[in-house]
Amino acid sequence: MNSTSLAFANLRDLPRALARLTCAWLALIAGAAYAETTPPASAPGAKSYTVTLKQLGRNYPMSLRGVESTDSVSFDVRADSIVTGARLNLQYTYSPALLAELSQINVLVNDEVAASLPLPKDKAGQLQQQVVQIPAHLITEFNRLSLQFIGHYTMSCEDPQHSSLWAKISNATELGIDVSPLVLPDDLSIIPLPFFDRRDASALDLPFVFATAPDNATLEAAGALSSWFGAQASYRGARFSSGYNQIPASGNAVVLVSGPDTLQMGSLSLPPAKGPTLTVMTNPNDANGKLLVITGRDGAELKRAATALVLGSQALSGSSVVIDRLDSVQPRKPYDAPNWLPSDRPVKLGELMPAKELLVSGYNPGDITVPLNLAPDLFTWRDAGAPLNLKYRYTPQERSSNSSLIISFNDALIQSQNLLSQDKLDGGLLSALKSDDSLGRETTVYLPLNSAALQSRLQLRYMFDYIKQGECNDIIIDNMRGAIDPESTLDLSGYDHFIAMPNLGVFKDAGFPFTRMADLSQTAVVLPDNAGAADLDAYLTVLGRFGHSTGYPATGVQVIQAAQVASAADKDLLLLASGANQPLLTQWADRLPATDADGQQAFHLSDLPMRVRDWFSPDPEANLRKTKLAMAFSGGAHSTYLTGFESPLKSGRSVVVIASGQPQGLADATNALIGGEDYTGSIQGSLVVVRGKSIEPLVADEQYYVGSLGVIKYLQWLISRHVVLALVLTGLGVALLGCLAYLVLRARANRRLQGEPERAVDHTEP
After folding, report:
1. 724, burial (CB in 10 Å: exposed 0-12, middle 13-18, buried 19+)
2. Confidence band (pLDDT; 50, 70, 90) for 382?
3. Is the pLDDT of residue 321 over 90?
4. Cα–Cα distance between 54 and 51 in angstroms, integer?
């Protein structure tokens, strides 16, 4: 074959070669596309979860206004997880007046731009949805998600605060995160990790495993642990479950073992305890799970080990330690719970939140919110309020007329302080300007505590006047600063502690009266005889709620059964019952407004369910809904109820009963104490029935008082409640004055009759 024929042959094969090349190229593109759209194989233990902006604390949609505005939420990633991917399902709308080529919404993670979204004209004013992929490398353990709006409505001079410059971000926007597990070391120094991780915004759900049926000392140790974890979980909420001699198939758990012998729990073998011992180890059923194993030769050693953990975890290290010595801690005092505002001294605002959170910038920077957790029994009757000595600083503007510091309490306006501009400062104030050009001021206001929620908030808001300069001269200069001095004080020391009981509202919100002592040293929990898993679950979860309220573990709680109740006569009693396993419900049936025995249920009812209002007055008399009907019936589902009454063992002590006719009903009661948006009704009064997600208060009969008042205040309060007593005391006062006048006049008359000269009065003019 010559060269010509060869060339011809190659030419004839060219289309076929091009076709093969094209097919290969298309296959390569298709393969690449498939590689991009097909997710990689998930690693063992990998999972995904989503949270909304509302779950991250944004209760209302983000409202972004002006030429540039930013709002943020924080989200964290558990320490035992590695982020492999994230996405934001953004729901938003924006002004129809915006210029599409100049306006945008930026998504930032930790101040890094993850995406910039255009704002096309044809979709303005409509709710839109956009999925934004977030690079995994932008996400760390602690993160800030920011939404930045940049808007313009004209190509020429514009007003940077024009009403057409707005965008709204729905709080239904979802953040999805993909994570793979990260194995943490077996080290006590990282406790409470991984059993509780403060980076995790979801509720804590932690199982407790007992090697055998626990004795009371073991249950006291478990209660100290659950209250400590409940204090750590805080607002997230915590639920605890219990089991016997069975390690969970996956995840984390707390294991409590007492006894001198070797123990085998499935694939877990534990050597004999040498004393109070704390150990962290890998869950033999799950390489990514951990076990916190607490062992002792008896229940007392178990309790010592648990106390060492909840009070001294910061000092522990290593995978296992034996507690050789544990000295008794200084006794707690009433009302000294770390989470409650001190009521025996003025408290500084710097004690309640970090100083950096008391600083703001910008023309309208939003609220500085200071949490105020009040003791439940502060006596605020006829009180002017708690004095707040507020010290603050701000940057005076050259001129303004409407700049102010707004002081609010639970969203109610208390006072508005005018922020003087430089042109209105006199010589003394001008000389008071600091080197940073800020002016310090001070004021005293009174916060009305009457009917204040136990979890209250002080809101401080700087609002600086934006002065328009005229067309093409309006430029926002971000030099406005405000600060609240951490030395500002709130003083509750003038209040007595006195409250009408029973009151299930303060039990639900603050665990009162049991939490009066933060360590529950004046509390006894009366468990049923042969308590089952449901009873123990309720006990651990309720003590977790107490820890959430106080911020302190229940190291002093006492666990008993009905036969030992006389030994706890000088304590407040918490009774748990499921079915007919609590003898005290029979012994104290005459004091209970509800009973469930022998197939018959009985309830006392008042007109509380028919009330028009849904709030309680600071005047106890206004809250009374005394029993007006007693009713008993047979058949039907067993009821779950909470009730309270004065202890039959000692006056001034309280009893709270959480009872159900069936074991699973106790979970309904503890879930109702934790609460949630899906519940109807509220826990208040002296008797409440719980049916699933429905809460029905039936009686509010306040029968006794706890606490004490000063003599004068007590007399004033007593007289205000009893008109007849006021009349009697008034009559006695009139009679006493009449007697004194009679005696004085009679003495003068006797002197006159006996010839004694009257004291002369000199009327001579000088």
Report:
1. exposed
2. confident
3. yes
4. 8
